[in-house]
Amino acid sequence: MVLDKWFNGEEVDFSPKTVTSALDEVEEEAKKIEDLVFRERRYWDAYTRLITCISFFNTAAQKDPSNESRIIQRLLAWIREIQRDLNKIVREVGASGYSIGISAPFGVSISLSFTA
To answer: What span, in angstroms and rounded, lies between the C-alpha atoms of 56 and 114?
Structure first.
């Protein structure tokens, strides 16, 4: 699987076919993150998996400057689907909230906020 290679630090080809395969894998990633949050209670591991997945798609988006593959839109839709997991992560790690941002060139970020 493409995302597993990325998570393991292996080199990944960012051809359109590979990126499409990875986009098809995000539903499975959502399940893995949900398991980490609700079953295993490994909140930082879930957050790390989430941001690593996002880093893959940010890198892929830079390879597709015309956004022909609609990577960012699909990634944002996926993030909306896993917001329940993200809400639980925020509560369990003691964060006061989170923000989801889009920046140029072609980047999505999720930040946790903590109060002093």
So the answer is: 26
pLDDT tens digits along 26-70: 878 888 989 999 999 999 999 998 888 888 888 888 877 777 777
Q: Is the pTM of this model over 0.90?
A: no
List, as one string, the DSSP characters of 80-96: HHTHHHHHHHHHHTT-S
Tell me the three state secondary structure of residue 113. strand
| Extents of the domains making up the chain | 2-113
Coarse DSSP helix, strand, coil percentages of the chain, rounded to the nearest 5 percent:
60, 10, 25
* Residue 78 CB neighbours (<10 A): 19
